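User: quick one, sequence for these tokens?
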């Protein structure tokens, strides 16, 4: 029992244990280290957020931090490490990269393996043959990242106005990318979309958030935008195309990326577009690659405005130099609608 004060029945209060007292300097050091780790681990996100801001002092300030932080994250593989450490926290209805169907579950192809060539690799029309008719067009899924907006609304409005009775599902996932799985793994998401909605046609427009390191065979990440990175990106895109085409009964309309204004993003766009072309090769009979670069940035030259329908030039890009505005989305929708009519005829409207 504790000692009692001889003049009281109340136990004496023991002296506090000796311990180090933290100073204000210690607190500032801890806060500084936490901020440094946050900047390094989120370097990619800061850089991409800055690249998507409108021109101005805010964009300059964010990129001043994001570019060196993103470079450090790339070199130290911190983004990949962050994904592994926080996998259990990922949102998106359990659609992170862990689990069946995820991209990282089967990274890389077997060395030296030769893929089988099937009739699906040939568009029958290119061979002078009559194409196999797809299933009737009842449901169309328009999906992707922020690039798919406002294209999704434009396509939905067009189908609603022509009285075709086609149901349009708009399922944009902002801030996501095929080369990043911290928010959503598109390998798993595409499977979930098909399982839930069974779309007869899928319109995909994605690419505003690409350029992240991706693991290949052996687990070592490869950085953008090497042939190894493009090969892994193509593998992921091909897996999604195969899911969306649903054994050949559905049609897929995959839009390439129009060239960006910022030169630092151009290598990413080139790698993504090259990967899309390679990915579609086994499925030419069902997958249509729609070239947005040829429409908006022919010859790789960026332009904010272009002549539309023989009229006066119109602004077709958002101020960020990445996305399409409403006028641009209308042009992209025209290309999609033409491809839909080629496959579905009057079901896709006149």
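Assistant:
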């Amino acid at each position: 029992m504790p000692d009692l004060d001889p003049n009281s029945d109340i136990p004496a209060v023991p002296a506090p244990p000796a311990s180090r007292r933290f100073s204000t300097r210690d607190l500032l050091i801890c806060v500084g280290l936490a901020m440094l780790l946050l900047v390094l681990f989120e370097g990619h996100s800061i850089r991409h957020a800055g690249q998507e801001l409108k021109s101005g002092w805010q964009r300059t300030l964010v990129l001043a931090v994001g570019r060196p932080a993103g470079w450090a994250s790339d070199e130290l593989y911190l983004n990949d490490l962050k994904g592994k450490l926080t996998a259990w926290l990922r949102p998106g209805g359990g659609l992170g990269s862990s689990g069946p169907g995820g991209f990282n579950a089967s990274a890389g192809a077997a060395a030296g393996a030769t893929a089988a060539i099937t009739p699906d690799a040939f568009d029958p029309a290119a061979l002078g043959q009559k194409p196999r008719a797809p299933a009737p067009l009842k449901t169309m899924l328009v999906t992707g990242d922020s690039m798919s907006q406002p294209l999704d609304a434009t396509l939905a409005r067009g189908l609603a106005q022509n009285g075709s009775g086609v149901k349009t599902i708009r399922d944009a996932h902002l801030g996501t990318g095929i080369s990043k799985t911290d928010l959503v793994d598109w390998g798993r998401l595409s499977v979930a979309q098909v399982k839930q909605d069974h779309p007869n046609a899928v319109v995909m427009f994605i690419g505003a958030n690409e350029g992240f390191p991706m693991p290949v065979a052996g687990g070592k990440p490869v950085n953008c935008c090497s042939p190894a990175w493009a090969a892994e990106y193509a593998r992921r895109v091909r897996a999604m195309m195969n899911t969306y085409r649903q054994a050949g009964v559905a049609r897929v309309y995959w839009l390439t990326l129009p060239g960006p204004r910022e030169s630092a993003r151009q290598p990413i766009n080139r790698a993504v577009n090259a990967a899309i072309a390679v990915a579609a090769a086994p499925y030419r009979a069902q997958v249509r690659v729609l070239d947005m670069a040829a429409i908006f940035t022919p010859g790789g030259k960026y332009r904010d405005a272009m002549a539309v329908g023989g009229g006066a030039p119109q602004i077709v890009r958002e101020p960020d130099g990445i996305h399409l505005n409403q006028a641009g989305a209308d042009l992209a929708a025209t290309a999609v609608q033409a491809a839909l009519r080629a496959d579905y005829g009057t079901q896709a409207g006149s």
